[in-house]
Amino acid sequence: MASMWDRQREADVVTAWRRGDQEAAREVVARYGPTLLRVALALCPRAEDAEEVVQDALLLAHRALGTFDPARGALQAWLIGITANRARQVRRGLARYALLLTRISRDSFVVSTAAPLQGDLELARQRLATLSPREREAFVLVEIEELSSTEAARAMGISDSTVRVLVTRARARLQRESDLPHALPARAEGRER
Predict the structure, then answer these.
(1) Domains of the chain and any CATH numbers
(2) Is 7 exposed, middle or buried (0-12, 13-18, 19+ CB in 10 A)?
(3) pTM of the model
(4) What residue ranges in the chain does DSSP mark as E strands?
(5) String of b and e for 166-184 (b: at least 16 CB within 10 Å)?
(6) Biggest alpha carbon distance in the chain?
(7) 105 contact partners, CB below 8 Å, separation of at least 6
(8) Count of C-beta atoms within a 10 Å radius of residue 6
(9) CA distance from start to end of the chain
(10) Tens of pLDDT along 57-102?
């Protein structure tokens, strides 16, 4: 993988990926896979669902490469949007399944938690779980993955101002839950890519 990933390199890799170049696909996975997995882990109730979400998102992205327009945003934001959308589908599916089990008078579906990965990561996942799904998604995209609120809005299919409101609410809730004596700092937007 090239040490410098700029817009031209991204365009070259996307072109090669569209042609079916396996090396280009590997490069995309190596570059963005960890980011996509972090997003999926934050948005999915189970680690195994998150891994499946990333695989599905990459396959969906490959099939939809013809719709990717670099003029509308970076490849990373587009891939995160696909991943977040797939994670929302998984959450809805789990909710429908739980409702079905309730209707047929069986025990409710219990979402298993992944074995503790590491203390800090598990604590972060527990804190994020206190947020509503939309707050969690907006917070992860803006504060953890460092998308601008505009990019996060595009990925979530909502307005830029709604993203900012969701992130502000998430920060406030996390502040209350954490018992920290100081406020969580807001990430400055408008950084150079």
Answers:
(1) 1-114 (1.10.1740.10), 116-193 (1.10.10.10)
(2) exposed
(3) 0.61
(4) none
(5) bbebbbebbeeeeeeeeee
(6) 57
(7) none
(8) 10
(9) 18
(10) 999 999 999 999 888 889 999 999 999 999 988 888 877 766 655 6
